[in-house]
Amino acid sequence: MDFTIVDIETTGLSAYYHKITEIAALKYEDGEVVGEFSTLVNPEVRIPRFITRLTGIDDDMVRDKPKIKEVMPRFHSFLGDSPFVAHAATFDYKFLDHALWKNMGLNLDNHKICTCRLARRLLPQLPSKRLSSLCSHFNIENENAHRAMSDVRATTEIFHNFLDMLKEKDIEDLKDILKFQKSKIPR
């Protein structure tokens, strides 16, 4: 299955009021990385201190970086029609969809696969489905958590583990994965 793993960093939690500060993605075809996208983004607003403490991204780092209106055409072209895979995918998808609409008048219409939703169904016994908890569970080292490319690489490893687990359930194609992630959570 071909897919693109995506992660963003932002100035806050609202896709409508806050801004993207970093986008990273890895595109996979036939199990191999065929493309990499990574850029800091000048949000054109001050980055809150608590966000800088969380991500390490500060105003100086983004001052001379491209603005979102320059980044979105490149990102949209990179993503193409590839399935969009992310941890807590709705968050990233919503921000990118809003930025795409605001800057290009387009909407994302990619299939969306969420590793958090998959974790709820594949690992119901795990108390937390946070990225850091899944990394601990699978012994994945995420040296630079809350930086987009580091989180993309960690999410990729988690997703590969999930693909193996899904294969054991005879769930291998995109349509079946999308259906599974919406299935009832086991209790």
The main β sheet shows up as: 5 strands, mixed
DSSP helical segment count: 8
Question: What amount of the residues lies in strands?
Answer: 15-25%
**What number of structural domains do the residues give?**
1
The CATH class turns out to be Alpha Beta
Following the backbone from N to C, one meets helices and strands in this order, namely: EEEHHHEHEHHHH
N-C termini distance:
29 Å
Please provide the count of β strands. Answer: 5
- Please state the second-level CATH architecture: 2-Layer Sandwich
Average predicted local confidence, pLDDT: 97
Task: Characterize the structure shown.
The chain is an alpha/beta fold and 187 residues long. It has one domain (3-181): Nucleotidyltransferase, domain 5. Helices cover 44% and strands 18% of the residues. It contains 8 helices and 5 strands; from the N terminus they run βββαααβαβαααα. It has helices at 49-55, 59-62, 68-79, 89-104, 115-122, 131-137, 148-168, 174-181, and strands at residues 3-10, 20-29, 32-40, 84-86, 112-114. The protein has a 5-stranded mixed sheet, with helices on both faces. Strand 4 (84-86), helix 4 (89-104) and strand 5 form a beta-alpha-beta unit. Helix 5 (115-122) runs parallel beside helix 7. The longest helix has 21 residues, at 148-168. It is globular and about 50 Å long. It starts with a strand and ends in a 6-residue tail after the last helix.
